[in-house]
Design a protein that fits this description.
Blueprint lengths: L2 H5 L5 H29 L2 H21 L3 H12 L3 H25 L1 H7 L5 H24 L5 H24 L1 H30 L11 H33 L1 H34 L4 H25 L1 H6 L9 H26 L3 H21 L3 H28 L4
Helix pairs in contact: 2-8, 2-11, 3-5, 3-7, 3-9, 3-10, 3-11, 4-5, 4-7, 4-11, 5-6, 5-7, 7-9, 8-9, 10-11, 10-15, 11-12, 11-14, 12-14, 14-15, 14-16, 15-16
Length: 413
């Protein structure tokens, strides 16, 4: 087989990966600017309260998505002309999950405590929780349909709208202005993207081959273990700040939340970068060695320098939020170091997901999330949390490398 034919399944993978990573970077930058504005407009305690509110609806959205976002990365490339039916079913399932999850959150005592820290918190939480559940699902749908180039456009528009609303409403509405700046652009984005996706599917599906829909056995094999894994990721991103809030108070959580948001933004960007690998591996599993090798090299070339620059400029970046936030410099540097082995873990998750091995996805994500939650619950200070995460990610990364050597590089080409 010629080299050109071997590289064909990977055509466009790097461009799509860079587009998705750029989208994550834009979102992260806008998030940083938004929290800088919030830190300047609100007292640290109010930032801690509203950050808990945001973490709450992000937590709900991640759980309510039912693991279907990553799943459609595998299913859509194989669905052919069945795409409309697949998308209708998954959209309805995600919508139902968003409604149920948001209602449950505002009813449980711990959730109610977070929600009532913001004026009219129940109504805004329901809107944000349901909206964000659909909004994040649509990124995966666009990627699975080969429309990854629209993801940065979508997230740039959302970010600009959010910052504009925050700048306008923050001085007069305080914490409520921050919440509204998230909810309103989210709902508008859901409406616009739903129309875009529907038109694209109607236009392309009749020209595609028949394709296959996942049967019940495949759905169970992938989602039964991988959905809890996705919940673990959501826990990793959003429950840890809530633990810090209750252990150390709102002011300490304001500092931790800024650091944790930066780390999670990098993690999301790395995951987005390898999502096109999932799509290509699903369509062409016979090219696993070349696809995984190419993705790994480019993942390292893009992200390792970014992590090094972030560590060097950690104090400067935190100074932007205010002098009290610089106490998180050491934690930020250690967590950036922990992201280096985390890149290996992210790659391993993508390989398992593309093969439909939900158990492999679950094991890797659960190991990371459980270590983060346990550390947040038991370590006496934030610095101990960072060192613990570095050690945990190092151990998991070694296990991933051993597994990839056996599954991918040990196999015959």
């Amino acid at each position: 087989m010629t080299a050109s034919k071997e590289s064909a399944p990977g055509k466009g993978m790097v461009a799509d990966g860079l587009a998705l990573s750029a989208s994550a970077a834009i979102t992260a930058l806008a998030g940083m600017v938004g929290w800088v504005l919030a830190a300047r407009l609100l007292p640290a305690a109010a930032v801690g309260d509203t950050s808990a509110f945001v973490s709450g609806f992000l937590l709900v959205a991640g759980i309510a998505e039912l693991g279907l976002g990553p799943a459609v990365l595998r299913w859509l490339p194989r669905a052919g002309s069945h795409r409309p039916r697949l998308l209708l079913r998954t959209y309805l399932a995600v919508l139902a999950g968003g409604v149920i999850g948001s209602v449950v959150f505002v009813l449980v005592p711990a959730g109610a405590d977070v929600v009532h820290r913001v004026p009219a918190g129940v109504a805004w939480f329901l809107a944000a929780g349901i909206g964000w559940t659909l909004f994040q699902f649509q990124d995966a749908v666009l990627t699975g349909l080969g429309l990854a180039r629209w993801v940065p456009v979508e997230n740039t528009s959302f970010s600009v709208a959010r910052l504009g609303l925050l700048a306008g409403l923050g001085p007069v509405a305080g914490a409520l202005g921050l919440v509204v700046s998230w909810a309103v652009p989210t709902l508008i984005g859901v409406a616009v993207l739903t129309v875009l996706i529907a038109r694209s599917v109607r236009r392309t599906s009749p020209a595609l081959a028949l394709g296959v829909l996942p049967d019940r056995r495949e759905v169970v094999r992938l989602l039964a273990p991988s959905y809890p894994a996705m919940v673990c990721v959501v826990v990793l991103y959003n429950l840890v700040p809530l633990i810090v809030l209750h252990r150390f108070g709102a002011e300490a959580n304001a500092v931790f939340f800024v650091v944790w948001t930066a780390i999670n933004a990098l993690d999301v960007a790395a995951t987005a970068f390898v999502n096109p690998l999932v799509v290509r591996l699903s369509a062409a599993p016979g090219h696993a060695r070349s696809l995984v090798t190419g993705a790994a090299k480019r993942l390292a070339l893009v992200f390792v320098p970014l992590l090094a620059v972030g560590a060097a400029l950690a104090w400067v970046m935190l100074t932007i939020f205010g002098p009290e936030y610089t106490q998180g410099t050491g934690l930020l540097r250690v967590l950036l170091a922990a992201q280096v082995p985390r890149l290996v873990v992210v790659l391993g998750v993508a390989v398992h997901l593309a093969a439909g091995r939900g158990a492999g996805v679950a094991l890797l994500q659960a190991a990371t999330a459980c270590s983060a939650v346990v550390l947040a619950l038991v370590v006496p200070a934030e610095s101990g949390f960072g060192v613990g995460m570095l050690a945990a990610q190092g151990v998991i990364a070694v296990a991933v490398l051993v597994d990839l050597r056996h599954r991918v590089f040990g196999a015959r080409p």
